[in-house]
Amino acid sequence: MHKFFSKYGKAVLISLIALASAVLLIAAVFMLINYSDDISVRATAEAQKRTLKAKSHVYEKLTENTSGAISLAILLSDCDDEVEAYGVISDALQKSEFSEVRFVRYFSGDVLYSENGAEYTGTDSSREHRGATPNEPGYTGVFNDEIYNMSVAGFYAPVTGSSFVDAVVVYYPRNKLSSFYSADAVTADADFSVLALDNEKTEILAGGEDLPSFSLKDSLRTMTGEVDGVNEALKLIHGGEDGTVKVTIDTAEYVVSVCADKTKLKDLSLAELYRIDNLCAVDFDIVDTIIMIMILFAMVTVLIIVYLIVRRVRREKEFFNMQTSDVKLQCLNRRGFEELASEILARNNVTTSFYVISMHLKHYKHIKDSFGEAEISRLLFHLKTAIAKIIGIEETFGHCVDGDFVLLLHAKDRDGLIARLKTLSYLAHQYKSAHKFDIILKYGIFERVQSEDLTIQQAIDFAYEANDAISQATAQDANMQFNFYSSELSNIRLLNEDMELRMEGALKNGEFQIFYQPKYNLRVGRQDGCEALVRWYDAKTGKFNAPALFLRLFETNGFIVKLDKYVYKKVCEYISYTIAHGGTVYPVSVNVSRITAVQPDFVEYYYNTKRKYGISDGLIMIEFTESFAYEDYATLRKIVDGLHRRGFKCSIDDFGCGYSSYRILKSLPMDEIKLDKFFLERSDSESRDDAIFSSIIQLAKNLGMKVTQEGVETKEDLERLIALGCDTVQGYYYSYPLPLSDYIIFVANSNKHNIT
Ligand code: C2E
Ligand code: CA
Ligand code: CA
User: Fold this and answer.
1) Ligand closest to the CA atom of residue 735
2) Nearest ligand, CA of residue 597?
3) What is the pLDDT of residue 258?
4) From atom 8 of ligand 1, which residue's Cα is the shortest distance away?
5) Does the CB atom of residue 681 touch ligand 1 within 6 A?
6) If you placed Cys at 397, which of 145, 407, 554, 700 could pair as Cys (CB 3.0 to 4.6 Å)?
7) Mean pLDDT for the chain?
């Protein structure tokens, strides 16, 4: 379980809970809707049931009331003519049993006679009864009698035994029917319950005392505020059907339940109104409970989700505390990056194309020293914003230190990644500044392979390694440089680790040796100096390793300071020893790395050593690289001034590699410039080459600097340099760098080495 969370993150957990809750809630709502539907169906049925009960009550009463007609029919069974019939009827109507009877008629065949024996031809509902069920006693309906001009209800009974009377009909006043209907007895729960007459107005005969009108139609309409529902109910009544219609009164659901049995009730009908809630009070309690449980459940779920979200937000905020963030730039620092990047990588285990990138702003220190803290901060913030713009989901970045950023990006392939980095460089170059400098971004890229079980720290180290490996020479002019980490780099790393372990011992054991490469003065036609170049002797191979192998490492780990001092001491030893023994000594140029030169005691140490060995002024020239001058001009200027005061000469090495050479010439009081080997390369236009070459030489000379060309390998180079007015040359053409013993011999015979 824990593994699951750490793999997929809490986001997935939250989503799962939310999903489960949503599904449950939807299911519950569905069930509830179904259940409420069910309730209303059952409520409707219940309403109808109650109305039917009321109907049977009315039936009973109607049947009871037919007894009057039946007893009269028995009395009439002996009558053989209209006179006898008249007598029987007149006698009967005197009795209290028939006190409510208004009048009586009888059938002889299909002819209807009034009680006085006259044939009656007016409207009488009993004719239909006789037509349909002549042998059935029963209620024949309400009608307005034309003769008596009153509304009456007729009850029919067949007469047997009489040769003249077939059936008798007894008429009661219509309001007698009202007593048949006791609303209270049958429909206690109804909002109203009425017996109505199906005529034009659906006139109410009984019940519903509080109704607004004696017409059912109007009453219902007024009460419910509905037309359609009421019409539907009336339609049922007119059609003689039983049924229900749902209506809504003030948001509450009601059901109108009607019974209108045309065959038995004739034009009578029953109408009732029930509130559904009242019919199913218990059911609704259950529903309320379910709703409450659901609300509680939803609340608990919401609380859990809120809690998880708050926790996650807090965790993310924690990333932005002092330990994991760069407060100034408002982004992650290296540690924050490491944490977030590992989380991202852990939850995207399957994706292979992740890249860890070290992005380095070249000349960070130079920009900072030359243009100030505010400028560099502004630039870094701009870079941060540029990176943030290209960062997508499941990607992150951080600022490590001094213009070093780390990025975690994913891309389809290397080309896709390069395209994104180009966009980033483009955005970075949108930087606007009052100062003039180039923004050069170097990208060291480590491509993360899924199978490799590497920590994020290792991946970052590899990206750094790839960045460091971007060669100085190729790096100079392009605005964007990148390098992918490869296993060869890894070999270099192993080699470096090995060298790092051995370097201190090697210094003590004298494994570092100094070679001397003579310099030839073209004006005087003989040697006029040399350069001390360090070599590391490898006893295993018996070879001297050139500085290219180890210098970079020693500059990174600081060992170069010790090595430079060592080389310098050895040079001083050689000079002092040779002079003491009456030998010839030419000035020696000593290389000093920038790291060594910026040590606070640098000038003092070099001066004290020189004094200790009793070496005269002018015999030692210190060489600084042009990149040092470019990156930290002010510091170098101070150092050069200090050295000059203490009798050293100063040279600027690898001149022409950088791009503010003119400024160096103008502002640094150097004694020599050493032109880089690339001046000797010929482009398409030799005349142009020569023009540039000669103007630099002239400029340097005008400023009182000696011009030395290094890397001179051929006679053609030499002749060209003579023609252009170069002072001194150094290179294989004159001599290879030599071990001290060979160099001493070389010097002794130097007058024989005339190359011009
Ligand atoms: P550099 O100061 O530019 O030294 C000149 C390099 O050119 C030397 O390489 C030398 O062997 C090589 N060279 C000389 N003549 C020719 C030639 O005709 N053709 C070609 N292709 N190359 C030539 P090396 O000895 O491998 O030194 C490489 C760099 O290491 C030096 O470049 C210098 O910057 C640095 N270095 C050497 N010794 C020291 C030292 O004691 N301290 C420091 N800090 N750096 C040193
Ligand atoms: Ca040099
Ligand atoms: Ca050089």
Assistant:
1) 1
2) 1
3) 93
4) 533
5) no
6) 407
7) 87
CA of 517 to the centre of ligand 2 (A): 10
Q: Is the CB of 549 under 6 A from ligand 1?
A: no
Rg (C-alpha) for the chain, rounded Å, is 59
Ligand with smallest separation from the Cα of 593: 1
Spacing of C-alpha 438 from chain mean position: 36
For the chain, the residue count is 756
Give the integer Cα–Cα distance in Å for 739 and 543.
12
Predicted model pTM: 0.49
* Closest protein CA for atom 45 of ligand 1: 591
Q: Is 717 a pocket residue for ligand 1 (Cβ < 6 Å)?
A: no
pLDDT band at 476; cut points 50, 70, 90: very low
**Residue having the nearest C-alpha atom to atom 37 of ligand 1:** 533
Type of residue numbered 478: A
Please report which confidence band the pLDDT of residue 283 belongs to, taking 50, 70 and 90 as the band edges. Answer: low
| Percent of the chain surpassing pLDDT 90 | 46
| 3-class SS of residue 481 | strand
Which one is predicted more confidently, 349 or 582? 582
Q: Whose CA is nearest to atom 3 of ligand 1?
A: 654
Q: Which atom of ligand 1 is nearest to the CA of 712?
A: 18
Write out the two tokens for 265: 């009730």
Indicate if the alpha-carbon torsion angle 715, 721, 722, 723 is positive or negative: positive
CA 66 vs. chain centroid, Å, equals 84
Instruction: Measure 571 CA to ligand 2 centroid, in angstroms.
Output: 14
Neighbours of 599 (CB within 10 A): 14
Would you say 92 and 98 are in contact if contact means Cβ atoms under 8 Å apart? yes
Ligand 3 centroid – CA 359 distance (Å): 28
SS (H, E, C) 586-628: CCEEEECCHHHHCCCCHHHHHHHHHHHCCCCCCCEEEEEEHHH
Q: How confident is the model at residue 678 (pLDDT cuts 50, 70, 90)?
A: confident
Whether residue 678 has its Cβ less than 6 Å from ligand 1: no
